[in-house]
Amino acid sequence: MTRGYVRFENLTAGRFYLRELENEGYIPDTQKKTVYVKSGETTEIEWKNTPITGQLQIVKTSEDYNSMNGWPAGTPIPNTVFEVYNARTNRLVDTIKTDKNGLAVSKTLPLARYKIVESKAAEFYGLDKTPIEVEIEHAGQIVKASMTNKSLYTNVSIKKTGYVEVMPEQLVRYNFTGIANNSTTALESFYWRDTLPVKAVRLEKIYTGTWNTPGNYKIVYRTNLSGDTWRTLADNLSTSKNYVLDASPAALGLASNEYVTEFMAAFGIVPSNFRQVEAPRVDCKVLSKLTGGTQFVNTSDAGGVYNGQWIMATSRWVTRVYAPSKPPASHRLLRTNNGCRSARGGIPILRRLRFLEIQKNDYSDIDTSASDLSLLHLGARCGRGCCGSGGADMDGGGQADQERGGEGGVPCIGYDPRHRILCETWRRVL
Question: Per residue in 246-260, pLDDT tens?
C-alpha cells in the first residue's frame, strides 16, 4: 500500500467482494463492497475513513528564579514555540505556541507516536532542543506533557582606566579590564570598541590582550575620512596571542589630514563566560595644542547579539590637561633696593626657588612679627654668622652662598634670634 492506495494486479475478469478489516489510526469501514473487474481495464473503488484522533497538550514553566523578569520557579512561560513531528516518518505535522498560561495545544492528530521539539524559547529563557516522545493510543485521548526552561541571564561588561592628568605631547595609556560575555548563553557578533577623543589625542599602538576561548578575530578601524567604512588593521588574529599593533598615522598610511576615530575587535560568536585573560591596552599621544585646565573623555563599549537584541556595556574615562597653579599675590617675589629678589621681610631668595611657608601659629612663641615671614628660602643663611659660618652652602648649588655676592651673599643687617630658630626648622625639613 502506498499513500492510501491498494493495488490488486493480474486478476481475472469477474466479480469480487472487498471488506476493510483494519486501518491504523482510523475507524475501519467493515461494510462489504462488490467490485466487477473487466479484462484490460482498471477498476477503482474508494473508501472514506474517519480518523481516530487525539490531542497533545504541553505545559511550559520556569525551572528557576529568573533575575531578568523576576519570575519565580514554576511560573508558566508564554510564547514558547514547539514543532510536532510524526516519530515514524519524521514529518512535521503541527507547530504550536504556549499562551499566557504556559499551555500549548495541538490540533487533533491521528493515533500515532509523536516527537515534540522546542524551536523557539521565550524571552529571557534558554532554548532546550531536547526532544520528547508521546503517543496517542485511543480515540479522544489528550496526551499531556510538562517541560521546564532554565532562566537566561544576559550581561556584557567592560571597564576602562587611564591617566588622570597629562601634559601636551605626552603619551597617554588606557587599560581595559573585565571585557567579558557574562551571559548564560552564547552571543553573536561580539565586539569591543574604543572611540577616541580625536580633539585631544592620536592613536599610536594597540595591545590586543589574550582571551580564554580558542578562536580567531580581527581588528578594524575608521578614520575621519572613511565615513561608515571599516578598514582592516589585522585579520585572523589568535585569541591566545597578545599582539602589539602599530596604529600610528604613518604605519596606517593615512593622509596628512586623516586620523583614526575609532577601532574595534570583532570576534563573531562567543560562548558563555568568554572573557579576556591578558588585559588589552592602548597608547595615544596627546596633541600639543591642548591648553591647561581642559579635559577630554575616552569612551569604550563591548557587546553582542542574543535573539536579535544587542546586549551592551559602556565605560568612560576622563583625563584633564595639567595647568600650573599661580602663587597667591601675597607670596609673589619683590625686588629690594639693592637689586636682590626677596620675599616680604627682606630675607634673601636664591636662584633655586624652594620655599617654606611659615604660618603665624607655628612661630607664635617668637613674636607677632613672625607672620610677616610668609615665604622663606630653604637655604637662606645670613652673612653675619647667626646660623653658622657665612660661607656655607645651604641651597645645594655647590657654591658658598656668601661667595656668590649680589643674590647669595647679601648680609643680614643685624643678628636676630629668630634666624637661629628658623635655620633649625629648615634643617629638620631638609
Answer: 999 999 999 999 999
